[in-house]
Amino acid sequence: MKQKALTWLAKLAKIVTQTIFLKQSDAPSSPYSGAASMTFRTSLNYAELPASLKATVGESDFLKAYNCPDSGSVVAWIINRSLGRQQELEFSLSLSRLLSPLEREQALPEPVEVAVPGLDVSVIKTYRLDQCTDVRYETYTIYSKDLQAQIATCEQVYFLPALTDVADMVRQAVESATFPATYGGWTLPEQVNHWVYVFYRIRHQAGETGAHEDVIFSIKLIEKMKETDLNIEQILPFIIKGLATMESIDPVELTKSFNRRTGLNIAP
Q1: Which residue ranges in the chain fall short of pLDDT 70?
Q2: CB within 10 Å: which end of the chain, N or C, has fewer?
Q3: At what angle do helices 219-226 and 232-247 cross, to 10 degrees?
Q4: Model confidence over 178-215: pLDDT tens digits?
Q5: 8 Å CB contact between 90 and 98
Q6: pTM here?
Q7: What is the secondary structure of 140-182 as a DSSP string?
Q8: Separation CA 65–CA 86 (nearest Å)
Q9: Phi, psi values for residue 47, rounded to 5°
């Protein structure tokens, strides 16, 4: 149970980010619900790697690899023991050798604008190599239609079996970036009901993993909520009471559990 709780806590920030801007009336949806792009890559095991690549990478250091026809290469993840970290390598099939990080950076495509139907924004797609792991990322910078104001940025690892639909990622990023302003225009009951729904949703997800529902209560959760509402502690008593009513549980016991896990002192 302890291990499951720790696993849940590791996932908490991601789940809250995905949930935090959903109103109570919104139907739950996944940021990965859209169709993937047409770039598909086949996984390779160590035995299937080109001989020249296997001569460079030992099997004990090998993690995973993909055949990437769009780049004419095999991309492998390895354990770089000298650096004490994982690393992404790109092996050119035409040159029959590894490409250096500089060569990879120089070969990155130029920035291009991509269309996202239904959103009045401009999206510029760029690429970068992570300075620590050499992982290639596809980055989407979202601007106002006139390109005068930057709204948000999101990105994904490029060398995956299939890329997530760009429109899904951009819509979620825009909703997340603009949500605090939307939230600020709500009435107090609407704000309370929103957080009750958020708590109920992520508690349910925690329970599905086998963890206790109360494991979601943490100071990190409060910090995440403050990104939307700096005065969130003032309405926490109403949120806890509303959650207890929704779940038909004792509000006093729920408040005690909340206080114990967050270090706050919310009155029942």
Answers
A1: 1-39
A2: N
A3: 120
A4: 899 999 999 999 999 999 999 999 999 988 888 899 99
A5: yes
A6: 0.65
A7: EEEEETTSSSEEEEEEEESSSSBPPPHHHHHHHHHHHHHHHHH
A8: 13
A9: -65, -25
- Residue 53's DSSP bridge partners are none
Q: Of how many residues is the chain composed? A: 268
48-57: Cβ within 8 A, 24+ apart: 49/74, 49/76, 49/91, 50/74, 50/91, 50/93, 50/96, 52/91, 52/96, 52/97, 53/89, 53/91, 53/98, 56/89, 56/98, 57/89
Question: Do the Cβ atoms of 130 and 122 come closer than 8 Å?
Answer: no
From the centroid of its chain, how far is CA 268? Answer: 34
Domain regions of the chain by residue span: 2-31+184-262, 42-103, 112-177
CB 176 within 8 Å of CB 17: yes
pLDDT in tens, 24-55: 334 333 222 333 344 578 999 999 999 999 99
CA distance 136 to 138: 7
